[in-house]
Write a structure and sequence with these properties.
Blueprint lengths: L1 E4 L2 H14 L5 E5 L6 H11 L14 E4 L6 E5 L5 H4 L4 H6 L3 E5 L12 E8 L9 E8 L1 H14 L1
Parallel strand pairs: 2-5, 2-6, 4-5
Antiparallel strand pairs: 1-7, 3-4, 6-7
Helix pairs in contact: 1-2, 1-5
The structure holds adenosine-5'-triphosphate (ATP) and magnesium ion.
């Protein structure tokens, strides 16, 4: 499934709908180049979950935890992950928590991922660096995630 997202605001709106339809133990993978809009999407999720403090890029911290959210949010960014950091993050422990896990740059931890997740890929449409147009692709693995992506798209219409 593909979706046109034409501004940062629209990306945050998509995040809101994702948050409204999310359930405990949901795993969302976010693919896309630097500056595609992965963190912007997560900010929309965080706001809709009732997080008052700014949702910042966890690039240097790897994981940021927001236990105060309506559905606790665990936001991870594996872009700068070194091999020895990998063992310090227990992804399964986060997935066992009754919250949602959002991962930027998930390919780095590919081998540790469960079989089911919702994967989103954000692509730029135009070559110009300042274009705000994106295409967002959804790829759902497993029954729950197929249902989740359907309800996201339904809620957007
Ligand atoms: N349609 C759009 N969707 C999302 N962000 C957009 C869009 N148009 C413009 N932007 C801007 O692009 C930037 C996206 O930055 P963001 O940090 O979300 O990217 P990222 O994918 O998380 O990058 P990184 O890989 O470095 O973590 C923001 O400044 C945002 O305002
Ligand atoms: Mg980011």
């Amino acid at each position: 499934m593909k979706l046109n997202v034409n501004s940062a605001q629209q990306m945050q709106d998509l995040g809101r709908v994702i948050a409204q339809t999310a359930q405990a133990h949901d795993l969302l993978l976010l693919n896309g180049d630097l500056g595609a809009g992965k963190t912007t999407l997560t900010q929309g999720i965080g706001r809709a979950l009732g997080i008052k403090r700014p949702v910042k890029s966890p690039t240097f911290t790897i994981v940021r935890e927001y236990p105060e959210a309506r559905l606790p949010l665990y936001h991870m960014d594996f872009y700068r992950l070194e091999d020895d950091d990998l063992s310090s993050i227990d992804l399964n422990a986060y997935l066992a928590e009754p919250g949602m896990v959002v991962i930027e740059w998930p390919e780095v931890v590919q081998e540790q991922l469960p079989e089911t997740f919702l994967e989103i890929t954000i692509k730029r449409v135009d070559d110009s660096w300042d274009s705000t147009k994106r295409i967002v692709e959804f790829d759902a693995k497993g029954a729950r995630n197929k249902k989740w992506s359907k309800s996201i798209l339904q809620s957007l219409n």
